[in-house]
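Section 5.1 Outputs to date
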Amino acid sequence: MDEKATDFSRFYGLWRIISHPAFLVVTALVIGVFATRYWEIAGLVAGTFLALAAISYFVRNWQFEIMSEVFEGMFRWLDSLLGNDNGPRK
């Protein structure tokens, strides 16, 4: 497999993990529980992660194909910026 195509797979795989609602909810809970000094900031960050989890849930269930195309285009653009003019190979 081509090295640049493998790099694209890593980016996309990392995005799939980070955008998963369970990951975002667990991250929000960890921030909320272990932040002992700045509760206002921790609450804001945790709330942001929970909002992202909700958005991610709806995107995955109802508009996954549309968002997949958007992110695939975004990663193709990023890949072209990194020097691969052909985009990722499938």
